[in-house]
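Notes from hallway chat w/ T.B., transcribed later so I don't forget. T.B. wanted the structure written out for a chain they're using in a teaching module, and asked if we could keep both sequence and structure tokens in one place. Agreed to drop them here.
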Amino acid sequence: MLAIFKREFKSYLRSFIGPLFIAAVIFMFSLFFTIFNLMGLSNNINGSLYNLGYWGLMFLIPILSMRAFSEERKNKTDQLILTAPVSVGSIVFGKFLAIVAIFAIPVAFICVMPLVLNLFGDVPLLWNYTSILGFFLYGVMLIAICIFISNLSDNPLICAVISILIILLGNLSSNFYNSLNSTFAKNLLASTIDFSTRMAKMMTGNCDVTSIVYFVSVTALFLVLSVQIIQKRRYSVSKKNFSITAYSSVTVIILIAAVIAANMAALQIPDEIREADVTAQNLYSLTADSEKIAKEITDDITLYFFAQEDDAQSKTKDESIEKILKQYASLNDHISLKYIDPVLNPQFAKNYTDSSVAYSSVIVVNETNGRSKVINYNDMFESTMDYQTYQQSITGYDSEGELTYALQYVCLSDDDMMNAYSITGHNEISFTSKFSDVLDKDNIKVSELSLLTSEKVPDDCKLLILNTPLVDYSEDEANKVIDYLNNGGNALIITFYKTDGELTNFGKILDYYGASLEEGNVIIEADANNYVAGSDPYYILPELGTDTITSSITSQGFGSVFAPLCQAISYTAKDDVTVTELLKSSDSAYLQSITNPDDKSENGPYIIGLKAVKELDSGSSTAVIYSSGDMFTEGADQMVQGNNVRLFANSINALVTFDKELVTIPAKDAETPLSIKGSYCIFMMAGFAALVLVIFFAGLAVWIIRRRK
């Protein structure tokens, strides 16, 4: 076998096909690497590997392997091998190892790339090398398949075409069998012909034993089938002369059945044994806090997962969420997981919410006290919008955070809830779901309050919300709010710019803290570093002050917040009021009249947000005031990757004293962007090009020299 390996390996290197294959693989990988990692600043090469494996190896490996046996048959040199004093298995395995060794050369180059990326930031090396392992095993399996195909014809070109078609079918198979109604048929086909899904599983950061079993078993199967085909040509088989080592249809059937059985059996291994979380953030594993909370639950909890239970290959089911749900259920007998097929039970969600519920959403229900919490699929991911391409990309995974919060929430009693009231009746704008969820997570129940029909702000009010009134308060309404503040109440006040009319009585509430608005004017930011590039200068990225509300944003390097269409807040110093400036414009900003653009004021800075604490005879009253009504919307938040939500949550925490705080599990980052200078990118791209050209022309030179001898 060793002699055959050496002969074949040298043959590939001395012919043009070996260097061409190596150069082509490195070239295609370099292309994807440049797009995803150098330009996209991704710290994970799984995207580059998947595209190379799915599209590149589909064509490159058949071209490399097509001559393994077909060319021997075409040149009639196969008879020399078949009559040689070596076993057929040694012949097949020797040729197989030679092609694998050629394939391993560019894979070795790829193995260096995570180390190169590690020079520019934090790189999850274990995840990257698990992806490389999946890519390598996938390629080795394709080599075994192509060697088998090369035994079927003496025309290498026909063998290459057939191999490409089979690989294409294997990669696309999941698109066809997922439409089948039979679960057994789906799992059977997934265990036999699904190629790319297995490779993808190895690249998601979840090292799955089933994928390794699949690649190894299918590789072994096609190598044995190749041996069987050669045995058929080497021996004369008849009913009188039967040998188990000779070609046998029964043997082939047994081998195929064994591979299918092995793969289906692997699917039955418990998740905690057959899967390993290799992500840097442990995306598929629960934190110690979540495990502790789940184990301490004494109420009966049901996790309703909107997906088909037995559809392992369903594209409508998020397996990462399913894995997390199974871990919760395994920690406590009081927690059970049930699957709800939205097709078969379209009205089920109506029992818990009026909103639509998407596939892979979860409803957490406390069967003991009847409390429930709906977690929509999109809420379990953090994403950002690229406004150049208008494409969203996932920046964080929050399934554990949402589920752990929901488990705590449904176990609360009504006495544990805190009441907040949002004043209505002045054309106020409601908070979008992302910001309402912040209040829910803080265990705050928000109710609407009309001061026209209520004698006063309710005594159980822990927080009063005055959100973007467009119509002025009456004097009586303003006095009711001030009475509440005089009794130690706290308020979140958000204003919205107006083109006409003044909010005189509303201004009295602001004046309680010595604050006032420059109504009728909008802040124009003249410093290009303080507004969104390519947009209008009133889309401001304000400077952050020093306070607990802003510290988590500045200390963790999250950047700035986004404040569009701001009014200027001014304040008069009062002995009993302490003011902290939270957000402000640059010194070069100015005010411009909304109705008369030529009417401009002197340069700033201008305050956009502040916190005011008024000392009372007994205690104090705190207000957080922002002058951009569009700040706390999902569109504004996406512009700064969640910073506006952080600011909103921190503001609530500064205003409310929690009687019973819920443990918060932060979202897990999808990846940490790299910091690569443009000059380094150009240098590496030039290095890739030089390496590819050296390999290509070196192989070409060797081939030409040998042709002339």
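Follow-up for T.B.: The chain has 24 helices and 24 strands. Might be a good example for the class.
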